[in-house]
Write a structure and sequence with these properties.
Pfam families: DHODB_Fe-S_bind (PF10418), Fer4_20 (PF14691), Pyr_redox_2 (PF07992). By secondary structure, the chain is an alpha/beta fold. It has 22 helices and 21 strands. It has four domains: about 80 residues, no CATH class; about 120 residues, Fumarate Reductase Iron-sulfur Protein, Chain B, domain 2; about 140 residues, FAD/NAD(P)-binding domain (3-Layer(bba) Sandwich), CATH 3.50.50; about 160 residues, 3-Layer(bba) Sandwich (FAD/NAD(P)-binding domain). Helix 9 packs across helix 12, helix 17 crosses helix 18 and helix 18 packs parallel to helix 19.
């Protein structure tokens, strides 16, 4: 048609990537507008799986968020086709490794560890018999896998308290008349009350007391930063170690689940109101449970094939087992909540359509799952992951399990950029996938790291290499487009910035090369843009977060409420609740 000089205003190309690239190559010299359709296999609406990452006009885009249609002349097809071939050689090799995997010895270690705990408790009995004050009772250390053992498996690191340990730890609580721990808890759990019940041996009663204000105790007991919240203000901590509130919360939640004595509250008469909850992360699950207990009909719409949001795709099995999350979801179902999976609101149906289809209100809890990158040279090389993609492949799609076909790169030399919990999760995961030199590259000092103290400590035990006061400036690649190193510059701390932490300043002439084969970018996530961009009248901030009242969750759009990370930005599980 071009040879016949026929006028062509626009061309649409749909098909294999090489053919679409060829079409664009033909039309570009004639300035014929060409639209290509980069249809992703998995639509998560955040780009978290990473498979649909593409460079368009020099900017990182995701086909499931920004597409699938793009200006073909702006698409970097060379980089795209290299990404599409990234796992061709590795899949067969990983299958071989999986077939040769040795059986896990975690259960044997667990039994042996508990024996040591019992011996330790017996040796401490004289303390109580001699009438020592509660405040002098030693803090009970939760039994856990050894570092040498746990880097060989994805089993949960801490085994949990024994009954004796839990009761002994509970006796350390002095039952303050004005408990600061209650105020330190974002959801105001009656902490002294549930700990007292543990001391009395009423573990089921303790679990029910927690559930009065917290619908996810087994989750929060494992992943909440208690050291910065309830335990930080514990009065016992003024003269000794604070009471292990998080460990006790985990204990009673696990006890209730394992003994099959789960309490289902009496649901009031149905109100006739129908509520849609978009997203099944911490915010969505909490809201759904609270509304169901009020008698409302609640339906959760979840984009992925499994409910739980960041709890299932973002947090590794060794920190939060997925059966724990599923048990919390099952509890909501027992309350009458319905869960619709594979439902991408904003794609298959809009918020306005939900309101027009009989829902009286819509709660938006879609989280902050859009990966951020550093925008430095080399970020599009093969072997560069966003932490979301890396963790999603492993946690949600079980790339670590030889029974699953999900591919993921297993490299010996890995750099993880960032200093938060996501960075620690990524780095510790890389170790378990065979990493030998796994670096955590953080531009500030250890003191400024936002990651949980326990996670940093566990990472050190496992062999992570911390590169503090260092910042990447360029990722180096070989002639085939694969990562072969990373250039960094050393930093020094200046005056505090808006976050209250001292601002990192580059030291001129201090550049150095880090020998790595894989780079995982864990510097934060942005708000999910799909709902705001498909919902007219919904006010957002400059950063793309939905503007909502802090107390009520009311947004600028009638009938629409929002909460969690989509409002506050990426934060902790308990704050999302």
């Amino acid at each position: 048609m071009i040879d016949n000089k026929r006028k062509i205003d626009i061309v649409f190309a749909v098909g294999p990537v090489p053919l679409m690239a060829a079409v664009c190559k033909v039309t570009k010299p004639y300035n014929i507008k060409t639209i290509v359709s980069l249809n992703p296999i998995m639509v998560d609406a955040t780009g978290m799986c990473g498979a649909c990452r593409v460079q368009v006009g020099g900017r990182t885009k995701f086909a499931c968020v920004d597409g699938p249609e793009f200006d073909g002349h702006q698409v970097d097809f060379d980089t795209l086709m290299k990404r599409l071939r990234i796992y061709t050689d590795s899949e067969t090799e990983e299958g071989k490794k999986g077939a040769q995997a040795e059986p896990c010895k975690m259960d044997e270690e667990k039994t042996e560890t508990y024996k040591k705990v019992e011996e330790e408790l017996m040796s401490q009995q004289t303390v109580l018999k001699e009438g020592e004050k509660r405040i002098k009772i030693p803090r009970q250390i939760m039994p856990q896998q050894s570092a040498k053992s746990r880097i060989e498996n994805f089993g949960e690191v801490p085994f949990g308290y024994t009954v004796e340990q839990a009761q002994r730890e509970a006796t350390r609580c002095i039952q303050c008349k004005k408990p600061l721990c209650y105020e330190g808890c974002p959801v105001n759990i009656d902490i002294p009350a549930f700990i007292k019940l543990i001391g009395e041996g009423d573990f089921i009663g303790a679990a029910r007391k927690i559930k009065e204000t917290n619908g996810l105790p087994a989750v929060c007991g494992r992943v909440c930063p208690q050291e910065d919240q309830c335990e930080k203000v514990c009065i016992v901590g003024k003269k000794s170690d604070p009471v292990c509130i998080g460990n006790l919360e985990r204990f009673v939640a696990d006890y209730e689940r394992e003994h099959g004595d789960e309490y289902i509250p009496e649901i009031p008469e149905k109100t006739g109101h129908k509520i849609a909850v978009v997203g099944s992360g911490p915010a969505g699950l909490t809201v759904a449970g609270d509304l169901a207990k009020m008698g409302h009909e609640v339906i959760i719409f979840e984009t992925l094939h499994k409910a739980g949001g960041v709890l299932v795709y973002g947090i590794p099995e060794f920190r939060l087992p997925k059966d724990i999350v599923q048990s919390e979801v099952d509890y909501l179902i027992k309350l009458g909540v319905k869960v619709e999976l594979n439902s991408v609101i904003g794609k298959i149906e809009t918020v306005d359509e939900l309101l027009n289809d009989g829902f009286d209100a819509v709660f938006l809890g879609t989280g902050a799952g859009l990966p951020m990158f550093m925008r430095i040279p080399g970020e599009n090389l093969n072997g560069v992951y966003s932490a979301n993609e890396y963790l999603t492949r492993i946690n949600l799609m079980k790339a670590y399990d030889p029974d699953y076909e999900t591919p993921v790169l297993r490299k010996k030399k890995v750099a993880v950029l960032g200093g938060g919990n996501v960075a620690m999760d990524s780095a510790r995961t890389a170790l378990r996938l065979g990493g030998e030199d796994v670096y955590v590259v953080y531009r500030r000092s250890r003191k400024e790291m936002p990651a949980r103290i326990d996670e940093v400590h566990h990472g050190e035990e496992e062999g992570l290499i911390f590169k503090f006061l260092m910042n990447p400036i360029r990722i180096l690649g070989d002639d085939k487009g694969w990562v072969k190193g990373m250039e960094c510059i050393r930093m020094e701390l200046g005056e505090p910035d808006q976050s209250g932490r001292r601002r990192p300043i580059p030291i001129a002439g201090s550049e150095t090369i880090l020998d790595v084969e894989c780079v995982i970018v864990a510097i934060g996530n942005g708000p999910n843009p799909l709902i705001p961009t498909t919902t007219p009248g919904l006010e957002t901030s400059k950063r793309g977060n939905i503007v909502a009242d802090e107390e009520t969750g009311v947004t600028s759009k009638k009938g629409v409420f929002a909460g969690g990370d989509i409002v506050t930005g990426a934060a902790t599980v308990i704050l999302a609740m």
